[in-house]
Amino acid sequence: MNDGNIMMTKIFARILLFFSRLIVRRYRPKIIGITGSVGKTSTKGAICAVLSSRFRVRQSIKSYNNEIGVPLTIIGSESANRSIVGWLGIIFKAIRLILWKDPAYPEMLVLEMGADQPGDIAYLTRMAPCDVGVLTAIAPAHLEKFETIENIATEKRVIIKHLRPGAVAILNGDNALVAKTPVPSGVIVFTYGFGDSVDVRGSDMMISRDSESSGLPVRGVSFKISYSGSSVPTLLSGVIGRPAALSALAATAMGLHFGLNLVDITRALQNIKTPPGRLRLIKGINNTLIIDDSYNSSPAAALMAIETFTEIHLPLGAKRYAVLGDMLELGSYSEAGHEEVGRRVAEGGVDVLVTVGERARTICRAARLVGFDSGSMFCFAEAMEAVRFLEEHIGPGDAMLIKGSQAMRMERIVKELMAEPERARELLVRQGPEWQKI
């Protein structure tokens, strides 16, 4: 991005900040802010599904979570990209919202708040002070800007630190750094997770199998949700793994705070629209199964994805292919993070390791050092090379976990190997025209 574009972005960001604050003051919606190193978008979707059963709710558009995206959600517009006319239209829409009150404006805004550098969360919470702050996880990510996990923790905790008395903090009790987050006096706290000491607890999680309607060997993830002595079962279809369950538990805590009961909440959870690229189940060519986790990657997210992947029951003789791309923006932690993933691959459950990118070769080296068969690992420079290899080797019943950082474009592998590529725009990430040029 050249200096002119940077300056223009800053100008529009300031304009959008001004109008967004005025809109929030005029309409006074309940603001639900969500941040964390992983799990923001899935948690946003789950919370919106639950609250929409009773309230007028708007969630962050797409994955808009920065100084441009958050105000666009407040205004209710998608990005105009490079169109000056489009941006002027957004500004006029904001002015109309301020001058003429819209009776259909949302009662609640569920806003994803990202942090690429120190100060981002403070900026966003000044724009939209939260009535509820949700902290999903603190883990190594964007370390090129933050340098240490302690700096990441400080940044993410702003979502809780800024809350006023009477506001609500919803914390992932399974994440040690989140659980240690100081909570201001007078703020109501809900913890969630699979541990014994949380308020909203998940248990008995398992992968549900054999859905004739979907044509997949795996239906989704099932588990129990317990709160204050009551317990209800739930099933999330089309997705697997602890991340999806944790998002549902966070949404349960949110629903409980706003007066819904467990039965109503679990019924609403059936309406979750799983975001593309987050441990999503997709039918592959040649009767294979794709676990599409191509949205992004970090060591913590990759470890959790591999753990989930190895729990899937496959037909006798079928193989598991872990297709892993570079994990970016890790700074000095890059080599150690890739090594950690490689060691987990070698612990068992993965039959074939396929990597994409120069950094991901470290995954292979680490796996080999702790005993993974070097004849079952294959390293490629870019995604389409991996596609050609997989097309030649995968067979009926095999499963592929596909995961990597956004810049690695691992969704291209999914698109080439999915049984219904005509559904790519519906099922995969980064299918808009702006991405096809990259």
From TrEMBL:
Pfam families linked: Mur_ligase_C (PF02875), Mur_ligase_M (PF08245)
GO molecular function, one term: acid-amino acid ligase activity
Record carries keyword Ligase: yes
Domain annotation Mur ligase central: ranges: 106-253
Record keywords: ATP-binding, Ligase, Nucleotide-binding
Residue ranges constituting the Mur ligase C-terminal domain according to the UniProt record: 277-405
InterPro entries membership: Mur-like_cat_sf, Mur_ligase_C, Mur_ligase_C_dom_sf, Mur_ligase_cen, MurCDEF_CellWall_CoF430Synth
The protein, known as: UDP-N-acetylmuramoyl-tripeptide--D-alanyl-D-alanine ligase
